[in-house]
C-alpha cells in the first residue's frame, strides 16, 4: 500500500468509517512503515486531545436569556388575523369583496339626495321644492315613488305610494288604493331594492 | 429531545413567551460556545447568540418540524459566525498602520481575551495550546472542526448544517485534523 492511501485510511479510521478489510490493510501497512506509524500516532493523539476539550465551557452570562427575551418582539394581536388570512385566502377575498360592496352601497345611498320621482302618470303631479304635491281632484294612475322628498297627497293614487328618505302627508280628501310605504334607513332601502328586483322578476 | 423542541416551537409560535425562553435556555450555551470558539471573543459570541435567537424567533413559522431543530439552529448560528469572520477579513487589514495614531495597528483594536477569567482559570497549558491551534485554522476548516469535536455533531449532521455533501465535510475534517497535527506536534 502507498503511504498516501494509508494516510487517507487513517483519517477514515478516526472517523469510524473503515471496513474490516481496510482496517487489516492499514494495520499491515503500519507494521511495515515506521513513518506512517509515527503519523498515525500523532493523528490519533490530536483526535483524542480534541475530544478531551470541555464541551460547554465557557458558558454564556446568566442574564443573556433575559436580554434575548427583551429583544424579541411581542407577538402582535394583528399576527393572528394575518395568519388566518394566509390560511383562508378565499374567505379573505370574499370578505374584502363584501366590505367593498357595502361601502359602495352606502356611498350610493348617501350620494343621491336629489329629489327623484318614479311613476307612470306624472302629468298632474306638482313639484314644489322637494315637496311632491298631488292636488285635490287629480288622479294618478299606477304606482308612485318619491325619493328624498316629502309627499303631500290631496287627490287619488290608484296604486302604491312609496316614499324613500322622506315623509308622507295624507289629507282627508286623499285616496290611495294601494299600500303606503315609507323607507328611511339604508338597510330598509337595500331591502326595498332587493324585494323590488324580486317582484319585478316575478311579474315579468 | 426533538419532541420537546417541536412542542416548544409550536407553543412559541402561538405566542407563548415562556416556551421560547425554554428554547433559549436549552441552546444558549451551545451556541455561545460555538460562537466563542469561532470568533474567540466573548462579546461577539454573545452578539451571535442574541442574533441567532432573534432569527429563530422571526422564522419560527418557517421551521419544518420534520427537520431537526438542532440542525436548524446550528445552521443559523454557524452562518452568522462565518459572516462575521468574512466581514472582519474584509474590513481591516490588521498589519496596516493606522493613520491617526502612530505605532498602532489593527491588532491593538481587537478586544484581547487574554486576561478574561477563563484564561486566568486555565490551569492546563495543553488545552490553551489546542484552543490556539483551533483558532489559527482557516474559517472553512474551523467551523467543521468545532462542530465535529466541540459540539459532537456527526459528519451527516455537519453536512446538513453547512448544506454541503458529506464527502466535502470528510475532506475538511481530514485536512483540519492534519493541519492541527502539524501545529500541535512540535509543541507537545
Automatic annotation (TrEMBL), chain A:
Xref: InterPro entries: Anti_sigma_zinc_sf (IPR041916), Znf_put (IPR027383)
Domain of life of the organism encoding this protein: Bacteria
Keyword set includes Membrane: yes
Keyword Aminoacyl-tRNA synthetase attributed: no
Putative zinc-finger domain boundaries: 3-37
The entry's keywords: Membrane, Transmembrane, Transmembrane helix
Residue ranges of the TM segments: 87-109
Family: Belongs to the zinc-associated anti-sigma factor (ZAS) superfamily. Anti-sigma-W factor family.
Protein name: Anti-sigma-W factor RsiW
Automatic annotation (TrEMBL), chain B:
Keyword GTP-binding: no
SUPFAM superfamilies documented for this protein: Sigma2 domain of RNA polymerase sigma factors (SSF88946), Sigma3 and sigma4 domains of RNA polymerase sigma factors (SSF88659)
PROSITE patterns in alphabetical order: SIGMA70_ECF
Keywords, sorted A to Z: DNA-binding, Sigma factor, Transcription, Transcription regulation
Keyword Transcription regulation attached: yes
Stretches assigned to the RNA polymerase sigma factor 70 region 4 type domain: 128-179
CDD domains: Sigma70_r4
Record GO terms (molecular function): DNA binding; sigma factor activity
Pfam family, one: Sigma70_r4_2
UniProt record, GO biological process: DNA-templated transcription initiation; response to stress
RNA polymerase sigma-70 region domain segment(s): 24-90
Annotated InterPro entries: RNA_pol_sigma-70-like, RNA_pol_sigma-70_dom, RNA_pol_sigma-W_bacilli, RNA_pol_sigma70_ECF_CS, RNA_pol_sigma70_r2, RNA_pol_sigma70_r4_t2, RNA_pol_sigma_r2, RNA_pol_sigma_r3/r4-like
Family membership noted in the UniProt record: Belongs to the sigma-70 factor family. ECF subfamily.
Record's protein name: RNA polymerase sigma factor
Lineage: Bacteria, Bacillati, Bacillota, Bacilli, Bacillales
Amino acid at each position: 500500500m502507498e503511504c498516501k492511501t494509508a494516510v487517507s485510511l487513517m483519517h477514515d479510521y478516526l472517523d469510524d468509517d473503515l471496513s474490516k478489510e481496510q482496517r487489516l490493510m492499514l494495520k499491515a501497512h503500519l507494521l511495515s512503515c515506521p513513518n506512517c506509524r509515527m503519523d498515525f500516532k500523532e493523528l490519533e493523539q490530536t483526535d483524542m486531545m480534541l475530544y478531551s476539550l470541555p464541551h460547554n465551557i465557557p458558558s454564556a452570562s446568566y442574564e443573556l436569556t433575559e436580554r434575548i427575551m427583551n429583544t424579541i418582539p411581542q407577538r402582535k394581536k394583528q399576527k393572528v388575523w394575518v395568519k388566518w388570512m394566509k390560511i383562508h385566502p378565499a374567505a379573505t377575498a370574499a370578505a374584502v369583496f363584501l366590505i367593498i360592496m357595502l361601502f359602495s352601497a352606502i356611498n350610493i345611498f348617501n350620494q343621491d339626495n336629489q329629489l327623484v320621482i318614479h311613476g307612470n302618470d306624472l302629468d298632474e303631479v306638482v313639484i314644489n321644492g322637494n315637496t311632491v304635491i298631488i292636488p285635490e281632484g287629480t288622479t294618478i294612475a299606477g304606482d308612485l315613488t318619491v325619493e328624498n322628498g316629502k309627499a303631500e297627497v290631496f287627490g287619488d293614487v290608484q296604486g302604491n305610494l312609496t316614499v324613500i328618505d322622506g315623509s308622507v302627508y295624507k289629507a282627508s280628501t286623499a285616496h290611495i288604493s294601494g299600500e303606503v310605504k315609507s323607507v328611511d334607513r339604508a338597510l330598509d332601502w337595500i331591502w326595498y331594492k332587493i324585494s323590488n328586483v324580486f317582484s319585478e322578476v316575478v311579474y315579468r | 429531545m426533538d419532541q420537546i423542541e417541536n412542542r416548544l416551537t409550536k407553543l412559541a409560535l402561538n405566542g407563548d413567551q415562556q416556551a421560547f425562553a425554554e428554547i433559549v435556555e436549552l441552546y444558549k450555551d451551545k451556541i455561545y460556545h460555538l460562537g466563542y470558539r469561532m470568533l474567540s471573543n466573548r462579546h461577539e459570541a454573545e452578539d451571535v447568540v442574541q442574533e441567532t435567537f432573534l432569527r429563530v424567533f422571526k422564522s419560527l413559522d418557517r421551521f419544518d418540524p420534520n427537520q431537526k431543530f438542532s440542525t436548524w439552529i446550528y445552521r443559523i448560528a454557524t452562518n452568522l459566525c462565518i459572516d462575521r469572520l468574512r466581514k472582519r477579513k474584509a474590513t481591516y487589514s490588521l498589519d496596516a498602520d493606522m493613520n491617526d495614531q502612530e505605532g498602532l495597528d489593527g491588532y491593538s483594536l481587537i478586544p484581547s481575551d487574554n486576561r478574561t477569567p477563563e484564561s486566568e482559570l486555565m490551569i492546563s497549558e495543553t488545552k490553551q495550546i489546542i484552543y490556539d491551534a483551533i483558532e489559527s485554522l482557516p474559517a472553512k476548516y474551523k467551523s467543521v472542526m468545532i462542530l465535529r469535536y466541540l459540539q459532537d455533531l456527526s459528519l451527516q449532521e455537519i453536512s446538513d448544517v453547512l448544506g454541503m455533501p458529506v464527502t466535502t465535510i470528510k475532506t475538511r475534517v481530514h485536512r483540519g485534523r492534519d493541519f492541527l497535527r502539524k501545529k500541535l506536534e512540535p509543541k507537545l
